[in-house]
Amino acid sequence: MEHPPSLSGGLCPPPGEQTRLNRNPLALRALFEAPESAVLRREVRGETFARSSWEASGEARLVLDRFRDAGDASCCFVRLAPGEGSTRLVVEGAYGLESCASGGWLIRPVDAWRPVYWIPRFPTLRRCDAQGRILTEEPATLQGFRPTLEESSIEIAGRGDASLDCTVWRFPADASGFIGELQRPLRLELQPIFMLASHTSLCGPAGIYNYLVPGDVYENRFDWRRKRKICSELEAYSLYLALLGLETATGKKVYRLLKQQILLSVIARQTADGSWCHGEWTDFMESHYRFHNGGMLLLETALQEGANGTIGDALRRAASVLSRCTDRTDIGLWFFHDSLEQSVEMTEKSGISWVPSRVLGKSPATKMILNSHVDAIVTLDRYREVTGDGQYSEQVASALTATRKLLALRPAEWLYRLLYWAVGLTLLPQPEAERLPLVLRALKRVTRNTLIPQLHRVKRRFPRMVMPGGLIERHLSRLHFGVNYHSVTTTPPVSWIWRASGVVSRAKTSKASSRARSKRSPTLACSGIGLNRSSHKPRATGLRRSTRSVRSNPRSHIGVTWPRQC
After folding, report:
1. CA 158 to CA 292: how far, in whole Å?
2. What's the half-sphere exposure (Cβ side, CA atoms, 13 Å) at 420?
3. Confidence class of residue 249 from pLDDT cuts 50, 70 and 90?
4. pTM of the predicted model over 0.90
């Protein structure tokens, strides 16, 4: 009887001969050559890169990235179906296994003409749901490395309820310079770099593959509510900026290669209409437009580095999607926070804490979340600057007008001053809170448990974002109250949009904010917040310090100045 072919190009052993190993061996050479029998799922091509994905014999899914301007270097993401027993990775010829200074392992040949393989992260066992969100993950177990003159193999233990993921780079002899760059990293390259979306740190080139799984960029964290990892274009943008900085600082070509792979992953995950889906809070894969904007900003940055038809087409489709995700209010155009806001029915199904209202003439499902709205303005306006396409200029102008009008609202000053004095008690550091008199400690507890959950009712009756003292709220709806959004999420977009529009708003500021601005370089004043002119561009580092300062001293939200390096 004839047996089905394995990925190594040989035959599967007869059932009677299968003992401890019950998976077909994976020949590394074969991973980079799609067999004729493979079912091609999708292909993305650009001027210098290409991605193809296929299923192999029903036992593996492979995603292959090729880079023509890098000596035909290529990277393969392999996902093996769940199964007990072990898997062997086999490479023909005499090879040795050694640690890579930039992370991971190198499989180096004795013969210089053979390719070098880089495994940046050890194979990982993962369980995913039907939408590709990661539910669990843990490193696989290495059972042995067996080098011989004819072939070398790595044996890895599998598990019946989890897929086995492995990422392998192949550098032909002509691309051996990349191996030298990986083996001699500077100290700068191994320092942790803060990632904006997941609040984790990227450490070294191999750290990219804590986020890039297999072929898609995920947040490197399990969300606190549903305990799963989701794909995020905002995380991809953070990675791209970090790699761009490392490329500029070191001059190494390997970072251009890794940048192209992040870019390719974002383009490949884009749907036919130009959007990206995430499913962060629901099971029906809603889109979050902060993530969508991150994908657009990445494409815009890449397009500025060099004209590319594939990037330009992906960017145009993404801009078209974003321009349609809006609500017409009494104060102007307002951009949605997520796709759930497109209808009351979708929002109700999501299970999110939410109260419908028509404040300022908005649609009932629109939550009027400030940071997402301003971020969309900046993203679309930058699209015009990068591409010269001004078809969305009227929308940007209307949305900018809505932002100015909302930030200028100052109703019920005496009421908000009293309420936010009480709210300020809940933001005190623990040592200072413990020194409060008994009456104020009791008021602090009542405020936290009773007043803050009802603030949305006051904001619905007297709509206002900028509070006495300078704190900018995030939304007008019944969502969580988080002071961290003032410095981490709200301030940078506001500074970008004020810079982009060429408008300097001289609003009323407290004495504390005036003192804070006088100690720093020239800033733009926006409703009591000092916004540094040098901080118009988002970067992936330096975010924790501002967050920590707000936590340690809640009163510092009066006159906050965004750190220069952000």
Report:
1. 35
2. 24
3. very high
4. no
